[in-house]
Amino acid sequence: MSEMVSTEKGLIFNIQKFSINDGPGIRSTVFFAGCPLSCRWCSNPESQNRNKEAVRICKDPKLMGKEWTVEEVLKEVEKDRCFYEESGGGMTLSGGEVLQQHTFAVALLTEAKKRSLHCAAETTGYASREIFAEFVRHIDLLLFDMKHSDREIHREKTGVYNDIIIENMRYAVEQKVPVIARIPVIPRFNASLGAAREMAALLKDIGIKEVHLLPFHQFGEKKYEQLGLSYEMLGVKQMHPEMLEKYQKVFLDEGMDCTFR
Ligand code: SF4
């Protein structure tokens, strides 16, 4: 008799098909609702816990998300299995913060691995060591967000200190989980060359070999309006790779592969 698939449910706000920037090949990206951080530039404000009330008032089903079982998610994801096989792709868990729903995430990953799917996750790494260690055991690639090397500045703009995040990134590298550091480059936060140098030194010390830079964009602006939330980045200009050549060079000079996403 075949083993039962978990009946655990997860709150998911989107499953995006044909993603090409969330790991190797063509992928389906599963966006988990809920995030313990509150980054001022967040383009998914509906996913932040503090905004639950705003999401409820908004009543837009796309922003509210819905509950899915493991089987339902995999049924949707596996529709594109032929594309994953041709391109070396698979499934990526993203958010919000996937570790907020770690029990569901681990159940989903366990079943996905049984079905031989390549599993990546984009995460802030903000969780206890116990939760994080259990999670990364099932992961083929971590796209690990690292926002600022300075703990006070990190707390001021994201709501949390970065200590656990740095420790968990170090742990993942020690466990030989492939890790790519992802840095959202945000004006008035971490877009200076000084911030880049400090970040590069930290990542080099941890043993990171590859970095993705994500220049600031305004994709989330409309959502703040829909949710009736104030938006600190209103009117701040978008950034483009051409503006960040010197920033990128800081990481290249430290021997890291560094590209834009
Ligand atoms: S970690 Fe990501 S999802 Fe969470 S608040 Fe920051 S930008 Fe938004």
- Which compounds are bound in this model? iron/sulfur cluster
Beta content comes to 15-25%
The CATH superfamily title: Aldolase class I
Strand order of the largest sheet: 3-1-2-4-5-6-7-8-9
Quote the average pLDDT.
92
Specify the helix fraction band: 25-40%
Whole-number tally of structural domains: 1
CATH class (first level) name: Alpha Beta
What is the number of helical segments per DSSP (H or I, 4+ residues)? 11
Which ranges are low-confidence, i.e. pLDDT below 50, for 5 or more consecutive residues?
Answer: none
DSSP summary, beta strand count: 9
CATH topology label: TIM Barrel
Sum up the overall morphology in one term.
Answer: globular
N- and C-termini, Cα separation: 45 Å
User: Strand pairing plus helix content: what structural class?
Assistant: alpha/beta
Secondary-structure element order, N to C:
EEHHEHHEHEHEHHEHEHHE
Taking Cα atoms only, what radius of gyration do you get, to the nearest Å? 18 Å
Q: Can you characterise this structure?
A:
- By secondary structure, this protein is an alpha/beta fold.
- It has helices spanning 52-58, 61-64, 70-77, 81-87, 102-114, 129-136, 151-158, 163-174, 193-206, 221-227, 245-253, and strands at 9-19, 27-32, 66-69, 90-95, 119-123, 141-145, 179-185, 210-215, 257-260.
- The chain has a 9-stranded mixed β-sheet with strand order 3-1-2-4-5-6-7-8-9.
- The longest helix has 14 residues, at 193-206.
- The structure holds iron/sulfur cluster (SF4).
- Iron/sulfur cluster binds at residues 35, 37-39, 42, 44, 47-48, 95-97, 124.
